[in-house]
Amino acid sequence: MAKIFLDPGHGGNDTGATGNGLLEKNLVLDIAKRIQRQLTVYSDAEVQLSRESDIFLSLSERTTIANTWGADIFVSIHVNASGQTGFESFIWNGNVSSVTQSYQDIIHAAIMTQIGGIDRGKKRANFAVLRTSQMPAILTENLFIDRAEDAAKLKSNQFLERVAQGHTNGLAEVFGWEQGNSGAPAQPEPEPEPISDPTPQTPTGTISTIQSTLNSRYGLNIAVDNIFGPETKQALILGLQTELNTQFNAGLAVDGIWGPQTRGGIVNVQRGAEGNITWILQAILHIRGHSPEYIDGIFGPLTEAAVRSFQRDAGIIVDGIAGVQTFTSLFG
Ligand SMILES: [Zn+2]
Fold first, then answer.
1. Which of 98, 147, 303, 323 is the least buried, fewest Cβ under 10 Å from its Cβ?
2. For residue 5, how far is its CA from the centre of ligand 1 (angstroms)?
3. Catalytic site residues?
4. Are the CB atoms for 71 and 3 separated by under 8 Å?
C-alpha cells in the first residue's frame, strides 16, 4: 500500500493563473480528481487530496496534512502562465534524495507520453511545498493557461483525462503497481459512472433490449423493433451526451447529433470502466457487429477485445481504448 497525496494548487480566493476564460484553481482540482478516480484501479494506492473543493489552503497547511498523514509521495498539480507553451515538472533545488530524482524522471516521462507537445524539461526550484514535504515531492506545471493553443487543450475533457492518466501511469510505475495482476488485483472502477439502471445484466443484448433500456433510462419513446436505424443511433448519442454532461460537466447540447462538440467532450473509456458510458459503448459495438457478448456496463476483457476487433476493422489505432477516434468511427 502506498499513500499518494495529491495537491491541487490554489483554491478559494486564490485563483492561481488565469487566461482564456480558465482558472488554474478549477483545472487543477479537476485533474486531481481524475487522477484519484483513475488510481482506483490499483488496490495498492491510497489517495488523499489536499482539497476536494474550491477552498483556500496555505502552502504550509498542504504539507502539514501530507506530513501528518505520512504520505509516500506529494504531487502538487499546477497550470503555468506567462505565454510560453508545454509541460515542465519540478523537484526541490535543495538536498533531495536520488529517490525523488528518479520519481521525477518516471512521472515526467509518463506525462509526456500521454500529452505529447513541448517538453520544457525536468527542473528544480525552491518551492515551499517541495521544500517542506517530508517525502519525495514533485510539482507539475501542465501547460500555459494564457497561451491560446494550450488553453484550447485544457478546455478538452479528453485532454485533461490524458494529463491525469500521465500522472496515474507515472505513479503506477513508481510504486510498481500492475493493473489487474495477481500482485495487485484491480478494483474495476476508474470512472465513477453511476449505473442508474439497477437491472444487473443484459446477456447478449438484442437491439430491442438496447432500445427499451434507452427509453427507460433517458425518458425516450423510440420504437422497440429490434432494428438499428437513425432513431436508435440518435438515442444512443443522446444518452452519451447526457452521461458526459452528468459525469464530466461536458456542457454538451443533448440533441442526439454526432458533431464536433460531442467529439470534443468524449473521454477515454477503457478496461476497468463501469457505468452507462461503457454500456453505450457496448451497445454500439454490438450493433456494429463487434459484440462484447455482455452489455452490462462493465468494461472487462470481452469489451476490450470487441473494441480491438472494431478498431482493426475500422483501420484505426488498435489499443483497446475507446477514445475520440473510436467513438467517431462508431457514431460518425
Ligand atoms: Zn499554480
1. 98
2. 17
3. 141
4. yes
Q: What is the pLDDT of residues 153-168, one digit of tens each?
A: 999 999 999 999 999 9
Mean of pLDDT over the chain: 90
From ligand 1's centre to the CA of 262, what distance in Å? 30
The CATH number of 2-175, from 3.30.70.60, 3.40.630.40, 3.40.50.1980, 3.30.365.10, is: 3.40.630.40
> What is the Å distance from ligand 1's center to 114 Cα?
21
Residue ranges of the chain that CATH labels 3.40.630.40: 2-175
Helices within 118-252 (DSSP H only): 128-131, 148-154, 157-175, 207-218, 230-248
Q: What residues are neighbours of ligand 1 (ion), with CB under 5 Å?
A: 9, 16, 78
C-alpha 64 – ligand 1 centre gap (Å): 19
**C-alpha cell recorded at residue 227:** 432494428
Phi and psi torsions of 11, nearest 5°: 125, 160
Question: Predicted confidence band at 272 (pLDDT cuts at 50, 70, 90)?
Answer: confident
